Amino acid sequence: MSSFWSAWIIVLTLAFLVFIIWLLRWNMNNYTHIKEGELMDHEFDGIVEINNPLPRWWMILFWITIVWGFIYLALYPGLGNFKGLLGWSSSNQEVLSLEESRAATEAHREAGLVVQYDREVQAADDRFGPIFEAYAQRPIPELAKDEEATEIGQRLFLQNCAQCHGSNAMGGKGFPNLTDDDWLYGGSPEAIKTSLVQGRRGAMPAFDAQFNDQQISELATYVLSLSGRKVDPEMAAAGKQNYAVCAACHGQDGKGNQQLGAPNLTDNIWLYGGSQEAIEETLHNGRNGVMPAWIDILGEDKIHVISAYVYGLSDE
User: Fold this and answer.
1) Angle CA 65–69–70, to nearest 5
2) Count of Cβ atoms closer than 10 Å to residue 124 Cβ
3) N or C terminus: which one in the chain shows less Cβ crowding within 10 Å?
4) In this predicted structure, which of 49-53, 60-64, 93-97, 119-123 has the lowest mean pLDDT?
């Protein structure tokens, strides 16, 4: 963080605390010109307010929280670039891999720095690392039938994958369903693990500049016909003439290409919706799906367990 932004944060934080002190002090005074305990000169719904001071216990607690705020900011990070008197840090900075994270943790320990997050991660790795290493030695199809391993894989999935694919792994618009047999890049154990390790980046180009609205409608109609949908035959025939630009990825028969991540257009399973309007939108604007790589976040052993869980979902 630059010196300017660090100073800006420090000024704002301290100014806000000072404002709270002033506000509390201001509310401790009687500005109503009515003695405490006497009735005020207004009422609501037959209820007359009494001029009572703030509860003493409430004021004491408020002062305690303000004092604690100053103590916390002195001991821990919170004021811009100031690290705090204890030198505490929640995590390593500029960490690129698990191995580098562990090395940085050891360096912090040798320097006597308090890195609570790293300590907890290292303690968890020391405790559970051998378990994941043992699981990693077993083939994914075999591991997918191990109830204990799949329960661990499910917890990892819920923590890291459910945000996109849902807690039931059935996905949503733009996020693949992992419980069926339809796979963009292949549903083999190796393909699933590769997707998790390397990530995936799908790119469906936009054809808005190449085709006019009528041609896109015709092309969408033909695409719908590939999955057995009832469509206007004349529109579909016209769209077939321009399908060659799609066949390069999806194949002449429309069955897709898992090497490219091009979906099968004949199975009536649609990642972004299978209506005429949704397909036309895809053709107009294109689609760009991103599956992040997890190797630097989870490590290969944990990815192996998640792969077994995902493989088991569609292999049941």
Assistant:
1) 125
2) 10
3) C
4) 93-97
Tokens of 234: 């004349």
Nearest to 133 by CA among 297, 293, 300, 308: 300
Q: What residue type is assigned to position 66 of the chain?
A: I
What's the whole-number average pLDDT of the chain? Answer: 89
Q: Amino acid letter at 209?
A: A
pTM over 0.85: no
